[in-house]
Design goal:
The complex is a heterodimer of chains A (about 550) and B (about 325). Chain A is mainly α. Chain A has 18 helices and no strands. In chain B, the strands form four sheets. Chain B has a five-stranded mixed β-sheet, with no helix packed on it. A three-stranded mixed β-sheet of chain B has the order 4-10-9. A two-stranded antiparallel sheet of chain B has the order 6-7. The radius of gyration of chain B is 28 Å and the shape is elongated. The chains are: A mainly alpha (about 550), B alpha+beta (about 325).
Amino acid sequence: MENDRVTESGGDESGYLAERGWRSWAFTLDHKRIGVMYLLTTIVFFLLGGLFAMLLRLELLTPQTKYFSAHAYNVFFTLHGAMMIFLFIIPAIPSGLGNFFIPLHIGARDVAFPRLNLASYWVFVAGFLVVLASLVAPMDTGWTFYTPYSAKTGAAVATLSFGIFLIGMSSILTGLNFIVTVHKLRAPGMTWHRMPLFVWGMYATSIIQVVATPVVGVTFLLLAMERLLGMAFFDPAKGGDPVLFQHFFWFYSHPVVYVMILPAMGIVSEVIPVFSRKPIFGYKAIAYSSLAIAFIGFLVWGHHMFTSAMSPLANAIFSFLTFFVAVPTAVKVFNWIATLYRGSITFESPMLYALTFIFLFIIGGLTGPFLAALSTNVQLHDTYFVVAHFHYTMMGGTVMGFFAGLHYWFPKMTGRMPGEKLARAAWALIFVGFNVTFFTMFIVGVRGMPRRYAEYLPKFHQENVIATIGSFLLAAGVLLLFWNLWHSLRKGARASGNPWRALSLEWRTPSPPATENFHEIPEVTDWPYGYGKPKRTPA
Amino acid sequence: MAEGLAFGAASEQAARVDGVFVMIAVIGGFFFFLTQGLLIWFAVKYRRRRPDRDNETPQITGNHLLEFFWVLIPSIVVVAIFYYGWRVYADLSGPPEAATEVHVNGRQWLYEVRYPDGRTAVNEIRVPAGKTVKFLLSASDVIHGFSLPDFRVKMDMIPGRITTLTLHPERPGRFQIYCTVYCGTQHSNMLAELIVMAPEEYARWEAGEREGPAGAVEPPAARGERLAKSAGCLNCHAVEGPAKIGPNLKGLFGSKRPLEGAAEAVADEEYLRESIVDPGAKIARGYPNVMPTFKTTLTPEDVSALVEWLKKLK
C-alpha cells in the first residue's frame, strides 16, 4: 500500500522518546510528551479512585459499618467521586490522548500554544497537590459539595475547592489551545469535513470546557468566600439560597458530562471503521451530533434538581429538553452499528473495548429516559438506580472508550504492540465484573436503596454482596489491563508505523513519531475513512 | 403492605408511576433488543473469515433516508415518553383538596413530626388510611431528603423553605422513610417510618390512648428503651461497640465526664436530663456540639423514662 511506504520512511529509532532525563520531560514543549505525562498522571489517579471504590464496596458487604466508621465511608465516597471526575474522567482523554493525537490527526507539528500547554499540565499537578493538602481535614461532602452542608462541615472545603479551581483552569487552557489548534493548524487540504471524528469530538468538548468551566470556578470561589469570609450566598440563615448553589453547580457539571463522553465517542468513531475495514457510516451526522450534544448539554442542568422544589413548569421544561439529548446520541449509536454492516470485522483489543463501549453505553443510554421522565425521576432520584446509570455511561462508556484508545494508539505512542492474550483476558474480567457490579445496582435502586449510605437495611444485603463480588472481578481486570500495557511497553513486539492499517494521518508517521511529527506536512486529499476505493467523500 | 398493586406499590398514585416505569421499560426493551441484537449479529456475521479480503468491503458511507428515519423515530419516542412521564407527575403534584397537614422538620439526623393539634413525635409519622395527607417539609440545618419508595415519591427538605409532598395512603401498613440527600456522618441512619392506620384505630390513637397492651402500665425503663430507638438517640449514641457521633451510653450513669475546657461533671440524673433538653450546656470533651434539643419533642415524662433506662445501662 502506498500508505505503508510513507509510514516506514525516515525517523530515528525511538522518535520523540529519544531524549532522556527528567528535564527532557518536565520542561518539554512537545505535545506528545505532555500528552504522555497527562496519561500517566491520570492513570495513577484512576487507580487511586478505584482503590477508594474498592474500600466502599468492601464496607458494603455488611449492612452495618464494619471495617470503617461512617465518617471514613463518607470521606471515601467523596474522594472516589471527586478524583474520578475531576482528576481522571475529565482530563484523561482530552488532555492525554487529545494532546497527543489532535496535532497528528490534523497534520500539525504541535498545538497552537506549546508553552501554554506545558503550563496547563503543571497547573493541573498543582491543583492535585492542593487537593492532597485538603486531606488534613478530609472532605465528607460528596463530589457535589451541596450547600449548606459544605458550608458547615469541619472539612477543608475551601482548600479542596481551590484545588478543583486550579484543575478547572488547566482544563480551560487546554480547551482554548485545542480550539485555536483546530482552527489554525490544519494541514493543507484538510477541510472541516476531512477532519477525523476524534477531532470533531474534541472540538465540541473544548467548547464546553471553555464556556462551562468558568462557572464552576466562580461557584467554588463563592463557596470559599462563604466559608472564609462569612459571606452569605448560600446560607438561608443569613438570607442566602442553598438551592442557588445547585443551579450553579449543575450549570457546569451537566455540560461536563459531555466533556467526559464526547472524546470517548470520538475514539469509538475512529476504531470501529478500522477494524471493520469500512468507511464510517454517516460521517457528517456523527460530526454534527457532537456539536448538537454539546449545545443541548447546556440547557438541561435542571434535571438534577427535580426534587428540590423548582416549579412544576420548570421541571417539565427541563425534562422535555433532557429528552432531546437522546436523539443525537441515538444517531451515533445507530451509525456505529451500521458501520459494522457487511464489514470484515476483526476483534483485536481496541475493537473489543470499542464494541464494549457501545454495548454498555446502550444500557446506560436506555436507562436515561427513566431519569428524564418526571414521575419516574422523582421515584429514582438519589437511589442506586442513578449510581448504576451514570456508571454505565461514565465507566461503561468513557472508560471503555479510553481503554479502546489506549490499546489502539499504544503502538503509535510507544512503538510497541499491546499484548493481545492478556488484553483479552483483562477484557473478559472487566466485562463480566462490570455488569455484575452495576446491573445489580439498577435492581437495588428500583427497590429504593438510597445512594451514599454507609449502612443499609438488611433487605438490600443480597444485592450488595453480589455487587461487591462483581467489583472485585472488575478491579482484577483493570489491574491486569494496566499490568499488560506496562509489560508490553518493555517486552511488546515492535510496532510498524501503521499496524492496524488505518487511514488517518497519525498513522502516516513512524511509531513512535519524531519530535515534530511529520518530516513533511502531508497534503490531505481525502476524508479519513475511505477504505477500498481510493477517493470517496462522505454522504 | 398493599395487596392488589403490583411491584409493592403502596397507593394508586404509586401504581401510576409504575405504569410510566413499565412503559419506558417496554420501549427501552424494544430498542435494547434491536440495537444489541444488531450489534452482536453484525459482529458475528461479518467477522473476517478470509484475511486477504479486507479491502473488498462495500463503500457505504451513509444513507439519507435511513438516517432521516433514525432521527425522526427517536424524536417521536422521546416526546411520547416525556408526555406520559410529565402527565402523571402533574396529576400527582396538583393541589389536593382537604388534606390533613403534617409538618415534618429534618435535622441532623432525625425527623421532628408535628401534627395540627400540637402533638409531636420523632421519626414516626402516623396517618389514617383513605385520607389525603399533605406533608409540610422543612429543615433546620442542611438539606435533607424525604423519600417514601413505597409511594414512589420524594421531596427535598430545604433550610429556609417549606416544601410540600402529598400522599394518598390507601391501606394500613408500615412504610420506610429514607433521607436521600447526603447530610453528614449519620446520613444513612436518618430513617423514619410512616405508619398508615385503619381510620378507627387512628381515631383511637388521636384521642390519646397509649400504645401497648390495654390496661398494662409500661415500666419507665422499657418505655425509655423504646423512646431511645424511636426518638433517634441511637443514631448518634452507641450502646455497645465503638462510639458514634456522641458518647457511648453504656456505663454512662454515675461516671465522671470530662467536659470541654478543663471542667468535669458527674453523670447523675440531673446531668442526663439536662443533656437531653439542653445538649449545648455541658459538652462532653472530644465530641462535636451537634445534638439538637429534645425539649419540644419529648415530654418531661418521656425524659424521665429515658433517664431510667440510662441508669440501667451499667
